[in-house]
């Protein structure tokens, strides 16, 4: 048996069958039993076969069965769990849930070394297992005086053919690190996760080779002419920061993908103040910024052959004597003017200046990420992020990436007629267009700051960036989607083939105009 081993941080990928797993030294073993699994003659196979025959274990329901000191197994704890899925996103989702349930049951057992056995694993299985282990063992400790971090120090993913899934393993581990960074920043209280703290995290990431960081303060933002961004920031004593990250993985001549993340570190609504109930959750309004930082953290590990620019306008939205008022008119970096009808529609105001700034990089694509509208939560709930795009191939690539990494999105319309409600008597446009189709009209606002010939996508993550209630906390989405999309863009031959397919499948119209056949 070949014993190829890949080490990345606290994860290890090993060629290891169930007979080898029975001899492995670990604090606990999780064995995923797929629907088509056939037992061997080793102790773990016999254990699983007996559990299936007695119906103590179900291959499909994902309910773990814990065993203590089974005969012939060196590890004292063995947890059997049926995955119930096949090699599809739905199957990977079931496997992720099964592994997460098994690992959650070990959370209080002091497990420091964990072995996860995936018989017949596909790339998607490995990705799902890594994500399940990392996400389930995540512990927030930043502002808790007696909190202990995760007990787990190492997780070994055991598969039959390590070389076949090595790249997916590397991507999954790096992505999990990025998701955890985004989660940690999102969970941090707003008096800790200030614009200055986001800038500090960006500078830390920029210590990695191939990544540069520039942080602009209020005076520099003013000199640029970002009147909309500064309009939102002026009600707060926290200085706004405009964070610019560069990842160079390809020749400098290659156009970059630009990621723009909304960085409202606390959103009171401003003068159009929000209701008091659940306002504490508005610390999560910087989740778009967190996802950009998390994506760059993953890029630092993976080093894909692609150039990426990250833009983060970061500030607070608070009421004050200097704060933005309903009826104010702001001049944006683009020169267009905006009448502010609602100060709680502030995310689009800081993003519009960042989108205009993005033009100077002559990007191959621009993707903005924002907890933008409650309307998107009503439309899609907490399952899928809202996707808006002026480019069919870009939209399809993001949808494919989301499905592959279990971070799904759903494309929404951008018909020109949706922009009619943004008309203003006193400026070039208003910042809101009424209650109807609020997520769409917000996207139509942003579209006015993007060149028609630039592939652009807007991800509204208001429903997916965090959970409320008993499970309150950041999810780190859509770091997985963004990382997988960028990794795919770094594979020219595969990307070219997909573009050709998309050209044939592209829909005939886009927002009332002919759709482009391919992204630049």
Please outline the helices and strands.
Elements lengths: L4 E4 L2 E5 L2 H6 L4 E6 L9 H11 L11 E4 L8 E6 L6 H16 L8 E5 L5 H14 L17 E6 L2 H26 L7 H11 L5 E6 L1 H7 L2 H7 L7 E8 L8 E5 L1 E5 L19 H16 L4 E11 L11 E3 L5 E3 L7 H12 L6 E6 L3 H7 L4 E5 L2 H13 L4 E3 L17 E2 L7 H10 L8 E5 L5 E2 L5 E2 L4 H11 L2 H14 L3 E2 L2 E2 L6
Parallel strand pairs: 2-7, 3-5, 3-6, 6-7, 10-12, 10-15, 11-12, 14-18, 15-19, 16-17
Antiparallel strand pairs: 1-2, 4-5, 8-9, 9-12, 13-14, 16-19, 20-21, 22-23
Summarize the structure in short:
The chain is of the alpha/beta class. The protein is 35% helix and 20% strand.
What would you say this structure looks like, in words?
By secondary structure, this protein is an alpha/beta fold. The chain folds into 2 domains: 5-162, Leucine Aminopeptidase, subunit E, domain 1 (3-Layer(aba) Sandwich), CATH 3.40.220.10; 188-507, Zn peptidases (Aminopeptidase). The chain has 15 helices and 23 strands. The protein has helices at 18-23, 43-53, 89-104, 123-136, 162-187, 195-205, 218-224, 227-233, 287-302, 347-358, 374-380, 392-404, 438-447, 479-489, 492-505; strands at residues 5-8, 11-15, 28-33, 65-68, 77-82, 113-117, 154-159, 211-216, 241-248, 257-261, 263-267, 307-317, 329-331, 337-339, 365-370, 385-389, 409-411, 429-430, 456-460, 466-467, 473-474, 509-510, 513-514. Strands 8, 9, 10, 11, 12, 15, 16, 17 and 19 form a 9-stranded mixed sheet that branches. It has a 7-stranded mixed sheet with strand order 1-2-7-6-3-5-4, with helices on one face. The protein has a 3-stranded mixed sheet with strand order 13-14-18. A hairpin with a 2-residue loop joins strand 1 and strand 2 (11-15). The chain is elongated. It starts with a strand and ends in a 6-residue tail after the last strand.
